[in-house]
Amino acid sequence: MSVLEVEHLQVAYRDRTGAAPVQTVRDVSFRVAEGGSLGIVGESGCGKSQTVLAVLGLLGHEGAEVSGRISFDGRDLTRLTPKQLREVRGSGIALVSQDALSALNPAMTIGRQMAEPLIRYDGYGRRAAVARCAELLDLVGIPGPRERLRSHPHQLSGGMRQRVLIAMAVSREPRLLIADEPTTALDVTIQAQVLGLIDRLRRELRTALVLITHDLGVVAGVTDHIAVMYGGRIVESAPTTELFDHPAHPYTRALMASVPRMDRQVDRLPAIPGFPPHPASPLPGCAFQPRCAEARPDCADSVPLLIAAPGAPAADSAHEVRCPYPAPAAGEPHPAGAPA
For residue 9, what is the enclosing H or E element? Predict the structure, then answer.
């Protein structure tokens, strides 16, 4: 059973000049099973955060035009009123943002911020809310939880602030947790701790997870399925193990090649040349074609469709790729005309 189903999602912005709308998300579809986890990966500007903000209904005030179907527990979120959406957020879908210092109110103590939704929406008394908040801080591994409730955000380290956000996100036991770059600006050790915490809470609370990141290494041990985005579109989607074993899209393979590995020593990591396309200047064909070392002249003719990856049964959509010349699976012949 799917907790979240997104079908043909599009996000566009129209300015006052009457020019053509700028599309930041283009025909994105995915689903998240109950208790499952999805990683959405790609460079900055590829549409990852726009996608999840559209799911949360947080783009309307910015003039965005959102179309498509976003179904959460069988309810189409695009048809809900602002009041109904507010009821879904927190109790149904919770967000852990990437900048904890900006997400937390600097003028309020941690305890007051954590207790407010419990008192306002769940009927807690003040004393019961404080006890619940201390329990949550203990759950996410913050020592001396009752003392920390009296602290202000600037008095906590970056890792502790991120743990506070996670505690706030799970306080109302949501069905779906969205973590948008939750390890940004944290050192590697703290990153591992935060990711381990998110994964543990997901399993213990049976909460579905959508994890947004630019780092494939971050999603490797946390998610069941990965969607790679580029130019506002999903260019490859596969179970995590399958994606790492048989990456089919040139962009996915280039991302993997740029990540340091313990089992391989190189003098210089390969980098992807150029920059992602600007949403206001879309390319007529494959968005990755100008940066792709394996591009062919016809790659610039039309936008490729999502197709079953080589080696995957045509009826099995578990591994899909948006490329006419995907890399073959082990033992598969290379597609005609594709580079060997």
Answer: strand 2-13
Q: Are residues 228 and 244 in contact, defined by beta-carbon separation less than 8 angstroms?
A: no
DSSP secondary structure string, 201-244?
HHHHHT-EEEEEES-HHHHTTT-SEEEEEETTEEEEEEEHHHHH
What 3-state class would DSSP assign to 22?
Answer: strand
Q: How far is CA 210 from CA 223, 320, 327, in A?
A: 8, 19, 27
Q: Does the domain made of 2-223 have the CATH classification 3.40.640.10?
A: no
Please answer whether residues 10 and 26 qualify as being in contact, where contact means their C-beta atoms are separated by less than 8 angstroms: yes
Distances (CA, A) of 43 to 213, 225, 271, 275: 8, 18, 12, 9
Q: What is the pTM of this model?
A: 0.90
**Using CA atoms in the order 99, 102, 107, 108, what is the torsion angle rounded to 10 degrees?**
-50
Say how far apart CA 299 and CA 287 lie, in whole Å: 9
SS3 282: coil
Helix (H) / strand (E) containing 176? strand 176-180
Closest C-alpha to 56, from 78, 83, 32, 28: 78
Of the candidates 185, 201, 87, which has an alpha carbon nearest to the alpha carbon of residue 209? 201
* pLDDT above 80 (res 9): yes
252: alpha, beta or left, given left = phi > 0 and alpha = psi -120 to 50?
A: alpha
Classify each residue of 70-86 as buried b or exposed e, where b means 16 or more C-beta atoms within 10 Å of its C-beta.
bbbbeeebbebeeeebe
Mean pLDDT calculated for residue range 125-140 = 95
Mean pLDDT across the stretch 165-172?
Answer: 92
> Is it the case that residue 24 has pLDDT exceeding 50?
yes
Which H helix or E strand runs over 54? Answer: helix 48-56
Burial class of residue 8 (count of CB atoms within 10 Å of its CB; 0-12, 13-18, 19+): exposed
Q: Where do the structural domains in the chain lie, given as residue ranges?
A: 2-223, 229-260+271-321
- What's the rounded Cα separation, in Å, for the pair 203 and 139? 13
Token pair of 247, please?
């990456």
Question: How far is Cα 176 from Cα 170, in angstroms, rounded to an integer?
Answer: 9
Phi-psi region of 73 (alpha: psi -120 to 50; beta: other; left: phi over 0): left
